[in-house]
Write a structure and sequence with these properties.
- It is built from four helices and eight strands, in the order ααααββββββββ.
- With 153 residues, it is of the alpha+beta class.
- The protein folds into two domains: 58 residues, no CATH class; 79 residues, no CATH class.
- The strands form two sheets. The chain has a four-stranded mixed β-sheet, with no helix packed on it.
């Protein structure tokens, strides 16, 4: 009967964040499993990671998604580690976890601000994961500057 329960939990997790990868699902299920009762013949080496905890697994599925706009370029990194957008722009941080996003503009670009779930301004973006959230970082090309060499006669 365990397989239908786990399948149901995974379905609930996908309802929260359809972009979860199989590796993320496995990691969430393993990290949120409850231990087997003491005296049980089941151990993690025999029966797996533990007893599935649906509430914890679904809560851990809340994802923070970053998108980038503008005519410039840059990356966004998170603390705790999970997002490095460049390449990884969405990560399930879990319910009630605080996350800090930092925008790093590429050379010849400037970061002009955040928009989205609870973020604004040009400093770091701080969110607490009470649900799945989306944040946008805007990067624009830096103003063109003309330099004239000093010529002395």
């Amino acid at each position: 009967m365990a397989t239908p329960h786990v399948t149901g939990v995974i379905s609930l997790m996908f309802s929260v964040d359809p972009s979860l990868t199989p590796a993320q699902v496995l990691s969430i299920l393993q990290s949120t499993a409850r231990p087997f009762p003491s005296g049980s013949s089941c151990t993690t080496s025999i029966c797996g990671s533990g007893i599935v905890d649906a509430a914890k697994a679904v809560a851990a599925s809340f994802a923070l998604t970053v998108s980038k706009t503008g005519n410039g370029s840059g990356t966004v990194a998170s603390s705790p580690t999970g997002i490095n957008c460049g390449s990884i722009c969405s990560y399930p941080f879990g319910y009630d976890n605080p996350v800090t996003l930092t925008a790093i503009p590429s050379p010849q670009s400037i970061f002009t601000g955040w928009s989205g779930d609870g973020c604004s301004g040009t400093g770091t973006c701080n969110v607490t994961m009470s649900s799945s959230k989306s944040v946008t970082a805007n990067f624009n090309l830096a103003p063109y500057q003309t330099y004239f060499p000093l010529v002395e006669h």
